[in-house]
Amino acid sequence: MDTKKKYCRDSRSPIPKNEQTSKTMSAIKAKNTKPELLLRKALWHSGIKGYRLHWKKVPGRPDIAFPGKKIAIFVNGCYWHRCPICNLSLPKSNVEFWTNKFNRNIERDKIKTEALEELGWTVLTIWECEIKKELDMQVERIKKLL
Ligand SMILES: [Zn+2]
After folding, report:
1. pLDDT exceeds 60 at position 136
2. Is 7 helix (H, G, I), strand (E, B) or coil?
3. N or C: which end of the chain has fewer CB within 10 A?
4. How far does the centroid of ligand 1 lie from the alpha carbon of residue 130, in Å?
5. d(Cα 113, Cα 17) in Å, to the nearest integer?
6. Terminal CA-to-CA distance of the chain, rounded, Å?
7. Does the CA dihedral 128-134-140-144 come out positive or negative?
């Protein structure tokens, strides 16, 4: 199978190898993602405990929740949640499908945050890339809230 074939659709952008797209997609899991595990490990090492994981008693099932302090932390994958820092490009095929899908993710994130804030929670969203780049700083951000 020749996946290296390159051609231009409208003389602007070459279509990327599907290989890469599917690689990106399969590397992403919904729960217990690698950045989330990294963050939890770092919290543990800083002596931060008493949080719940994927707590079902509040809207949006925050990845990490401190119920006593009403603090919810979401660890967002840059790709699926469309990280504003990374600003990753969209797949070049089925653009409409992916745009809709990503927009729904963004909308869902917004609804979750608003629902929690209405209940008096503080919501912190930490992006995958922030964890990869500056894990310690993310722990500090959480510490400050606690
Ligand atoms: Zn990012």
Report:
1. yes
2. coil
3. N
4. 7
5. 36
6. 54
7. negative
Query: What does pLDDT average to over the chain?
Result: 86
Report CA(81)–ligand 1 centroid distance (Å). 9
Cα(129) to centroid(ligand 1), Å: 4
The strands making up 64-66's β-sheet, listed across from edge to edge, are 52-53, 64-66, 71-76, 122-127
Name the token pair of 33.
Answer: 């993602």
18 alpha carbon – ligand 1 mean position (Å): 22
Angle between helices 34-45 and 135-145 (to 10 degrees): 60
98 CA from centroid of ligand 1 (Å): 18
Is the model more confident about 140 or about 25? 140
pLDDT exceeds cutoff 90 at 32? no
Is the pTM above the cut of 0.85? no
Is the domain covering 38-56+66-145 a CATH 3.40.960.10 domain? yes
Choice between 12 and 110, residue whose per-residue pLDDT is larger: 110
